[in-house]
Design brief:
Layout lengths: L14 H7 L8 E3 L2 H5 L7 H13 L10 H5 L7 H31 L3 H27 L6 H7 L2 E3 L2 H28 L12 H21 L8 H21 L2 H6 L4 H15 L6 E3 L4 H23 L1 H23 L3 E3 L13
Parallel strand pairs: 1-2
Antiparallel strand pairs: 3-4
Length: 358
């Protein structure tokens, strides 16, 4: 594991790197796992689909995609409102942290496991995520707020997750990443007047990388069906709800960003969550009933609680601390209520693989 004691003092890095280092509830995290258990994965039950998938990674369809064009350097953002600039930088910072988190985890898996199938796959995925992170960071550099990724590697805290939690969480993060990017791309395809930065033109092919990464975890889980049975169905529901709730709350705090793209944030989140939930039926035997109005009402309650926490923390004092604590407790109870909502159950499709056709 990387030695965080070798990192320079936090006060010597820029504000964007400092923000990326924080382990707040809604911030992307860095993970480590049980590499010996990963070594025991067996893909032979789905060997044909596995070899086809790895062949796609080997062909590297996006090898030449992440190249900047003159329009990046020519962009004049000096007329942007301070709110839009801050919202866009926050979006990029969260994105680069998430992409780089995947790059580090996948590279560590490749380094630590002996299983040839697993080593090869995660090497390819680390390559892709590193490419994404570098492309985003170059955009941040245009605003003079580039994240120090080498510092982030040393200073960020690492959270241990069991391999099955890595499968569920990472599968969902890759598929929801696809759903978010393709929804933004399709919107700007129809309404180019909202495309305030050229990076959005890269989202279509980019999101196909995210989709392909999700496919890898889908094949891994379907080839090892014990990860989808018994009590693991409860864990799957937990991670579905955790990912959806985190996105909903975080996006509703970024209203300026989504308004600039021509979205109503409620419509955006509903579309993305429904699409991700639909896609996840390829591998999860249990999914969320997104037609239940109570599901959306409880997500909104969590958002309102987060707003209350922000106001209470800004007010400080004993009263603020009490209001913040009560809101945190209510969010915990709200999530429990989400877990008790009726779920949807369906048999898994015979063919694991999907195509990014949305």
């Amino acid at each position: 594991m990387i030695d965080a004691t070798m990192a320079p003092p936090l006060e010597t890095v820029n504000e964007t790197t400092r923000a990326a280092t924080e382990d707040a509830v809604l911030n992307p995290r860095f993970y480590t796992t049980d590499f010996e258990e990963l070594d025991r994965l067996d893909v032979s039950p789905l060997r044909a689909q596995w070899d086809e998938l790895v062949g796609e990674f080997r062909r590297d369809p996006n090898k030449d995609h992440f190249k900047r064009t003159p329009e990046f350097a020519e962009l004049d953002w000096t007329g942007w409102s301070p709110e839009l600039k801050a919202a866009f930088i926050e979006f990029l910072t969260s994105s680069v942290t998430a992409e780089f988190s995947g790059c580090i985890l996948y590279a560590e898996i490749k380094k630590r496991v002996k299983n040839k199938d697993i080593r090869e796959l995660f090497g390819f995925m680390s390559r892709d995520e590193g490419r994404h992170a570098g492309f985003i960071n170059h955009v941040l550099n245009d605003f003079n707020v580039r994240v120090d990724l080498s510092f982030l590697t040393r200073a960020k805290k690492y959270t241990f997750f069991k391999p099955k939690y890595i499968y569920y969480a990472t599968y969902l993060s890759e598929k929801i990443g696809y759903a978010r990017y393709i929804t933004i791309f399709r919107q700007l395809e129809k309404h180019p007047e909202y495309r305030f930065h050229p990076i959005f033109k890269w989202f279509e092919e980019w999101c196909n990388d995210e989709f392909r990464h999700g496919e890898a975890f889908a094949v891994l889980m379907r080839a090892n069906p014990h990860t989808l049975e018994g009590i693991n169905k409860l864990w799957i529901r937990f991670f579905l709800l955790a990912v959806f709730a985190t996105m909903y709350v975080r996006d509703h705090a970024r209203q300026t960003f989504f308004q600039a793209l021509g979205f109503d944030v409620d419509d955006f989140d509903r579309k993305v969550i429904r699409l991700t939930n639909e896609i996840s039926r390829q591998v999860f035997p249990v999914t969320i009933d997104t037609d239940n109005p109570q599901f959306w009402a409880l997500l909104e309650r969590m958002h309102q609680n987060m707003q209350t926490m922000a106001r209470a923390d800004a007010a400080a004092g004993i009263g603020g601390a009490v209001r913040s604590t009560l809101a945190k407790l209510d969010n915990g109870l709200t999530f429990v209520r989400l877990m008790f909502l009726p779920a949807k159950h369906a048999p898994l499709p015979a063919n694991v693989r999907l195509e990014p056709v949305w």
